[in-house]
UniProtKB/TrEMBL annotation, chains A, B:
GO cellular component: cytosol
Limits of the AstE/AspA barrel-sandwich hybrid domain: 207-287
Signal peptide (residue range): none
CDD domains the record matches: M14_ASPA
Protein name from the UniProt record: Probable aspartoacylase
Reaction(s) the record says it catalyses: an N-acyl-L-aspartate + H2O = a carboxylate + L-aspartate
HAMAP family linked to this entry: Aspartoacylase (MF_00704)
Keyword flag NAD: no
EC numbers: 3.5.1.15
Family that this chain belongs to: Belongs to the AspA/AstE family. Aspartoacylase subfamily.
Residue sites binding substrate per the record: R56, N63, R64, E165, Y276
Domain of life, source organism: Bacteria
Record key words, sorted: Hydrolase, Metal-binding, Zinc
Amino acid sequence: MNQIKRVVIVGGTHGNELIGIYLVKKFEEMPKLIQRESFESYTLIANPKAYEIGKRYVDTDLNRCFQRQDLENPKLSSYEAQRAKAIYRTFGTGGSLAADFVIDLHSTTSNMRLTIILPSKHSFNLRLAAYLSSVNPNVKVLYSEPKTSDRPYLDSICEFGCTIEVGAVAQGVLNATLFQQTKELVHIILDYVEAYNEGTPPQVKDTFTIYQTIQTIDYPRNEVGEIQAMIHPQLQFRDYEALHPGELIFLTFDGQEIAYEGDSTVFPVFINEAAYYEKGVAMCITQQLQEVLSL
Amino acid sequence: MNQIKRVVIVGGTHGNELIGIYLVKKFEEMPKLIQRESFESYTLIANPKAYEIGKRYVDTDLNRCFQRQDLENPKLSSYEAQRAKAIYRTFGTGGSLAADFVIDLHSTTSNMRLTIILPSKHSFNLRLAAYLSSVNPNVKVLYSEPKTSDRPYLDSICEFGCTIEVGAVAQGVLNATLFQQTKELVHIILDYVEAYNEGTPPQVKDTFTIYQTIQTIDYPRNEVGEIQAMIHPQLQFRDYEALHPGELIFLTFDGQEIAYEGDSTVFPVFINEAAYYEKGVAMCITQQLQEVLSL
């Protein structure tokens, strides 16, 4: 693998996730914070119009607009489709400032601590994630096997990098503790890339824990799609904790308790994320795996 | 004072405060929950279009649209101005279903527990608040001396009632614990009104604690109005706790700590409420007072 020559740090892919937006603004005011010797650093507020109106998006979720087939489709003309095309033309493969590595900064109403979402299991990404989880126990590593190779997420604009999800924090709110932890995490990532470029990446243990998504669970809904239950108090904010068959996951508006009906212990994440109500996702179910790094 | 003949329970004055909206939906499905012998109960989703689009409001904050001078101003034609006029024509003084008592259900990203906001210091409202805070230590009573008698809040449509603020909960999210606590609080209020109508209101102690707003504090901002600091981690979620002069309230994006410069101990509330960033309010400063009930 060649060196990382250009890094892009993205905030505001969702306009109401303020930590990434204000972190990018800070980096733009004080560019030395993200400069390193061996690569160029760029910043981007991905969805400025959504930030202006204080919403996740204007027309459609920007972080689902990056499939190659959509980027190449001239008929797609929503604000976010246009933004995705412009971002890809700049930082994507063959772009005017084609990036080798992307950090996409998100926040969530779920208690996701400092989650690194792996875009792929390329050994570079795995080693970085292993390193990050070794230096900070709050770092969790999440991975979803993509359904097709054409992923719709912003972090798919280059082969290397990650999406960072920090929480729990409300939409439209800055949380100073999470802001500082995210800033620190970005610095550690940039330092790692620098060390990698210099041929001296930090050593990591050869196994580390990842959480791999196996399914999503929707809220119970009625025939017209209205939700009929809430996340059970016993599950709220318990992202990444073990959920055993028979444990309670929902409480209906009538006070009935609904248990998890799977047949094995799982680890739910993105529990009660505000933006996922409309996506039909009350939580994502993961398995906890020990990932073995190849030499 | 006459009997309370008609009560209206309002949710969704802000479209992204889901607890009140889903509670009103539940009451509409199961009207027996809010029926009592001595009065009629009505429900209202105040801002259905804002709820549809998942925002606080469409054009302007509905909960600032109820000044009489605005309700009578034919030139005001925003969606919310029209909604306020329609609501007042129905449930306001002289309306087709003029209400004597209103409960307006809100939620907040601040850690406000179960806050009763008093619309006035009428002895009926005070006695109700004293009772509620006596039955549940999570209930806090908040009062702001109005600048003019023409208050802009929805709860000003009738003389009696209150606004309920529950939190901390993110916008666009249901929290089951707070949902159930709010439901319980509404039941207790309705039972209180019933007992009052029957001439047997519960006895209360003759003093109780209220928090009276004395000022608001904005975020530090630069010359173009952009915020330059966040709520300090030591203050986050500490609504209703004592804040002493010299204690830290903000952390700038550069890591500088800013202390409270007042000269007496105060009790901040609405700390880091998402919707107040645009209103120039990082927190409201209150004094803790012992309110004495008149006989």
